[in-house]
Amino acid sequence: MIKMEKHDLVIVGAGPTGLFATFCAGLRDIESLTLESLDTPGGQIPKFYPIKMVYDMAGIPGIEGKDLAEALYKQAQLFHAKIVTNSKVTDVKQNQDGTFTLEVNGQPAYTSKSVLLTTGIGSLTPKKMKVDGEDQYAEKGVYYSITSMDVFKGKRVAVVGGGDAGFDSANQVSGVAQKIYVLEYSEVIRAAERDVEELKSTGKAQILTNSAVQKVIGDGSKVTQLLVINRKTNETTTLDVDVVVVAIGHNAEPHAFKSLNLETFMERYVKVTDDFQTSVKGVFAAGDVCQTKNAIKLGLLAVGAAEAYAAVDNVKKYLNPNASMFGQHSTNLNLGAQSNTPKPQTQTPQQADTPIIQQDQHREVYATPQTAQKPSYTAGDTPGASKKKVK
Ligand SMILES: Cc1cc2nc3c(=O)[nH]c(=O)nc-3n(C[C@H](O)[C@H](O)[C@H](O)COP(=O)(O)OP(=O)(O)OC[C@H]3O[C@@H](n4cnc5c(N)ncnc54)[C@H](O)[C@@H]3O)c2cc1C
Prior knowledge:
6 helices; FAD/NAD(P)-binding domain; alpha/beta; elongated; five-stranded parallel sheet; binds flavin-adenine dinucleotide
């Protein structure tokens, strides 16, 4: 029988809401574990806008997406929280004693007294073109998001997808690319007119409608060409390209914790009370995944953060009915955080001071070897941190 780890709170999803909730759990001295299905935390930020500026975070006049994701991660770690990536929660079951068993990647893995769902729009995976050569050249010329400008410098780029995401990607790389093709499957371009005009004004772009990619061609180590068919004339063309950006959307697999049978709103949102309690006692939800009233709320970072704060206060009350609703202002703490973000460090599993959880289909974030292209994360101690606990 698998010996399961026990927790007071398991936070499902390490997007911006889940990361801030992780910090809030530390603030309220709640023992917690955060599980993320992707290989990096940050949710929609690293997937959709890693190198775009975010201007509407209170008190931050402007911050690049990946820096914001990294700052959220660093803040979540102020209380040395456990965040485990590559851990998709596939089901949550309520036990007879009221606790919950969380199934990760199909296996029962953890039990917890309470659960906070911060699963946003669900598990995200980019849609694939499903053509020959696509998988062979993935990350060797075929990309699904733009995480660095370096790969586009002086290159001939094909952006597959003439929607908002496609034109957004094309405009992002237009400053450094030599030539850009935008390939749209249908007859009409539906992207925002302003973005289309912006790309056209670069003089580098060729927009091809009715175009379907048939094959990614390469020399074994990198992409060299793209075989495209015109769906109207059946004419095939071979475009000389170095980089292909696939921007045809994402599959978002929504929360499917079927055993909980949570009450939902418009099928997509988990319904919560004003206390962020779902229809199952002990299961809370915050951020893009939930809806407090029968009206659409704004899916925004600041909204998710406020909800995470309130949800965690309610988790505290649930775990300990005698606890106060509010802990205290964070200005009462001395966490020793630097006002500037220190360089992320890499820790090997041996160096990490938190025990490795389960064997290892679930990879600890801080045991992840870092690459130069991706934002790197660490659970390293904050220098000089002195933890003052808040009850
Ligand atoms: C292009 C774009 C631009 C945006 N710009 C802004 C902006 O300028 N300002 C702003 O305020 N907002 C912006 N937003 C919206 C903002 O990104 C979202 O409101 C925010 O990401 C919601 O955070 P979340 O943590 O609730 O959900 P998400 O960001 O969706 O994160 C949820 C996380 O949960 C994980 N997850 C899901 N299911 C499971 C599971 N079963 N097991 C484990 N993990 C799971 C997912 O992988 C993901 O990492 C933008 C969104 C997009 C798409």
